[in-house]
Specification:
two-stranded parallel ribbon; two-stranded antiparallel ribbon; 4 strands; thyroid hormones biosynthesis; Iodothyronine deiodinase; selenocysteine
Length: 97
């Protein structure tokens, strides 16, 4: 899931990022989400409100993997970069099914 929040493109970026400037209004944030949707991401794109409550609660600073079901966190990975382990998520999902 891509969360469109104020943490998009301020200060650093990966080489394949879409360049989106800091949002100052919800309308700008919604427009930024549309730019991301046009890139056809392989995950849902959701928009945080201007308080960035979702990013502050679930943000990956440093990165962290979560599995959610029915709006509840059922798996929370260790903090990255050293604890970031996609195979741990895979193992959880394989046991969960």
């Amino acid at each position: 899931m891509l969360i469109v929040s104020s943490f998009i493109a301020d200060g650093w970026a990966f080489g394949n990022n879409v360049d989106i400037k800091q949002h100052t209004t919800l309308q700008e944030r919604l427009a930024a989400a549309q730019v991301l949707v046009k890139e056809d991401p392989l995950c849902p794109v959701v928009v945080d409100d201007m308080t960035d409550i979702t990013a502050s609660r679930y943000g990956a600073m440093p990165e962290r993997l979560y599995v959610l079901q029915s709006g509840k966190v059922i798996f929370k990975g260790k903090r990255g970069p050293w604890g970031y382990d996609p195979l741990e998520v895979r193992a959880f999902l394989e046991k969960f099914n």
